[in-house]
Write a structure and sequence with these properties.
Elements: H1 2-23, E1 30-37, E2 42-49, E3 54-58, E4 61-64, H2 67-77, H3 88-113
Antiparallel strand pairs: 1-2, 2-3, 3-4
Length: 115
């Protein structure tokens, strides 16, 4: 009977130890910034993960913080302008600059949290 009790106690101790070690892991935190684009009609969110990379979210889809991800996001935004004096290239350059600033703000927030 003592042997059975000792085995059960040992198993409970091991299970408790494993549960405590795996249960204390926390999810990485995100720092996010959101801004309106296309004359205030659509929202884009830029997020940076603690210990990880950054990404953009628009219309439920994530876009990586890469040149290709940024181009894909600008294509998805499809901001058409009524101003004839502004070319599509100028508008895309403006969008790219704003999006890069948005992700930079998310990075700054992430880094301030980690200090």
């Amino acid at each position: 009977m003592k042997k059975r009790f000792s085995i059960i106690a040992l198993l409970l101790f091991i299970c408790g130890f494993v549960a405590l070690n795996t249960g204390c892991e926390k999810e990485p935190e995100e720092s996010c910034q959101q801004d309106m684009f296309c004359d205030g009609e659509v929202a884009v969110t830029a997020c940076c993960v603690d210990g990880g990379g950054c990404y953009y979210t628009y219309n439920g889809k994530d876009y990586p913080d890469t040149d290709q991800g940024l181009e894909d996001l600008i294509d998805a935004l499809d901001c058409t302008t009524a101003k004839k004096s502004v070319s599509i290239e100028e508008q895309n350059e403006y969008l790219m600059a704003r999006l890069k600033w948005l992700i930079e703000e998310a990075r700054i927030m992430r880094d301030q949290k980690n200090q």
